[in-house]
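Q: Can I see a sequence and its folded structure?
A: Here is a first one.
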Amino acid sequence: MSLSSRHLLGLYNVPKEDIQLILDTAVTFREVMERPIKKVPTLQGKTIVNLFFENSTRTRISFELAQKRLSADTVNFSTSTSSTKKGETFKDTVKNIEAMKVDMIVVRHQSAGVPKFLTQFSDANIINAGDGQHEHPTQALLDMYSIREKLGKLAGLKVCIVGDIAHSRVARSNIYGLKAMGAEVSVCGPTTMIPRGIENMGVKIYNRIDDAIKNSDVLNVLRIQLERKAGTSIPSLREYHNFFGVTEERLAKKEGEILILHPGPINRGVEISSEVADGPNQVILNQVANGVAIRMAVLYLLGTQN
């Protein structure tokens, strides 16, 4: 079996079968990660460039680990030492890199649409590691994997994405992916952080966190993206926590269990309390481990296509 596309640019209009294949393939690689020797020769001889124009810790390390555990040759591109600082265009930078005969490019960029733009002049497989406020497909895939791992399914679950929806590429990819897999998706946050018309994506809107908790099986809690000027959408971080923070007191009111996810980095005392972030309902560190397995699966499926 193979994916329907030779790139992973986002989850918009990605078939359910592709998502299912990635999730199922990741199960095998999750098992590999538990072995004493966490390495397989699957992509030996392949060269992968990590083209990160935006700061990242988890995503970059996760991709690099995934590549090395698949035995690929990995090259990390640093914008601080690149020729883009000398006036070279993005396109010329990539074409020069490709001239060195690379097979795959993992790209993260502050501008939406860059991964798709890359496909117009590159023969390499392109994987989107986050582009502006557009999409972050591998994060959504690892979120879905973590939910399925814990709850055994995705179809029919009620999943609410809480927080700074307007600035979140994670929210967008999660909505596309979860809906494709049959989950009921909702969003919750201040009206200033809920994009106008988001209900047209087939999601429900909650304006109170208590209602979201009451009616959900899963909360995917997002941070306030201060680097994207999200702080101007709320009076203060303290007030945000008072009205929308996920706390033990709020979770205690819910009848039945609820699963807590967070893509990181966590802002304790803002979108989530320390007690919840370290508590029994969350799978935050599981998400980090699952992220390596998901990225191994994506690299493997794209890198072994005929």
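Q: Show me another, different protein.
A: A second, unrelated one:
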Amino acid sequence: MRPLGELVKGIYRENPVFRLALGLCPALAVSTSVENALGMGAAATFVLLGSNITVSLIRNFIPAKVRIPCYIVVIASFVTTVELVMGAYLPELAKSLGIFLPLIVVNCIILGRAEAFASKNTLGISILDAVGMGIGFTFALTLIAAFREVLGDGKLMGYMVFGPRFQPVLLMILAPGAFITIGLLMGYFNVLDARMKKRKSEAEEKRG
């Protein structure tokens, strides 16, 4: 069960955005469209996977005093790779993501997984952790972006969602709209989590 648990925990139970409140800067900045959200999610997942694999492989050879600088160098190498590839093949997306693409280097999700997980676990488990966290981060960005794009523009990935009479809520594509959307979604997941715990507790009491 542990491998499966490591894979799925990042999607909901330890979702980096909704449950751990990490990576909020890119979540706020690039979630104006689903396309941007998917691009940032894919880039972050690639860096997560690459850094977790590398850190897990070299964890026994890095002196404790310089582990953080070493992790940052590893992460920066993968971020540079993403930048170059995206700039060559997806220049419009790279331009849309702007400064937040190179800032993946200091994304607390990636450095946190390298320090707290990959440096203490085997390669296989570290890969599952990276994939799960990457999926969870991408899911969070996409969900936020979908709400903002639909309400703020009336479209989803270029397709009209509402009729021509729909008046877009321009606030949703501005910075305050990002805060409002994340706050509401966090609140929803907290309520959902509380209900699930209550049902689990009630079920255990009945069995007892």
